[in-house]
Specification:
By secondary structure, the protein is α+β, with helices and mostly antiparallel strands. Helices cover 55% and strands 15% of the residues. The chain has two helices and four strands. Strands 1-2 form a two-stranded antiparallel ribbon. A two-stranded antiparallel sheet has the order 3-4. Strand 3 and strand 4 form a beta hairpin. The longest helix is centred in the first third of the chain and has 32 residues. The protein is rod-shaped.
Length: 78
C-alpha cells in the first residue's frame, strides 16, 4: 500500500518536471522576441568616438561625432 503512494508521488513529480521544462522553453522563446535590435555604429574620424550612425555627422564617406569635429578635421587637412 505504501508503494502505491510512492509511485503516485513520483508520477506527480515527473509531471511537474515536464511541465516546468515546457514552461521555461516558452519563457525563453518569448524573451528572444523582446530583444533589442542592434544599431549600426560608426567611428568619429577626428576623436575615435563610436556612436550610432543616425546621430553622426556625415561628410562623404567619413563620419564625425559633431560639426565641431568636422570643422576641426577640415582645418587640419588645410
Amino acid at each position: 500500500m505504501g508503494l502505491r503512494y510512492i509511485f503516485i508521488a513520483l508520477a506527480l513529480w515527473g509531471v511537474f518536471l515536464i511541465g516546468r521544462h515546457f514552461w521555461r522553453q516558452n519563457q525563453l522563446k518569448n524573451n528572444k522576441s523582446q530583444q533589442i535590435k542592434s544599431v549600426d555604429s560608426v567611428q568619429c574620424a577626428y576623436c575615435g568616438l563610436h556612436l550610432p550612425k543616425n546621430e553622426a555627422v556625415c561628410s562623404g564617406d567619413v563620419y564625425y561625432c559633431s560639426k565641431a569635429h568636422q570643422k576641426a578635421a577640415e582645418k587640419q587637412k588645410s
